[in-house]
Amino acid sequence: MKKKVLFLCTHNSARSQMAEGLLRARYGDRYESFSAGTEPGKLNPYVVRAMAEIGIDISGHWSKSLNEFLRDEFDYVVTVCDSAKEGCPYFPGGKKLLHESFPDPSGFTGTDEEIMAGVRTVRDQIQQWITETFGVGKQ
């Protein structure tokens, strides 16, 4: 039986979406992944592009509220930003809470390529953390 993981951030527009897509693509045989936000916004198009570059299509994702998941149980609830950790220090259906903070791509400025470079960096940081935390022989 697959373990269920919920990734939370503020807007569910970038970091939690990348984490959901990465976990599903890399370890979907062992984990079901979901994501939500404390204040859902709109999917970040730079994030969609950065994920497509590594062969993961999240273009069909949308921002969801954590309220949609309050009646569900998860083996892991992971906050990927400090704001979500502060806004949701306890999740009723979460068996184990994890936290790792990543920079917010919505704050990146500059040229298109400079923004993409920043998003790629965050994507790669999340990917490394996912591998270290959920990879073979983990959890």
From TrEMBL:
InterPro entries: Ptyr_pPase, Ptyr_pPase_sf
GO biological process: response to arsenic-containing substance
Domain of life: Bacteria
Entry keyword set: Arsenical resistance
Keyword hit for Metal-binding: no
Pfam families listed in its UniProt record: LMWPc (PF01451)
Ranges where the Phosphotyrosine protein phosphatase I domain occurs: 3-136
PANTHER family in alphabetical order: ARSENATE REDUCTASE
Entry protein name: Low molecular weight phosphotyrosine protein phosphatase
Organism: Lucifera butyrica
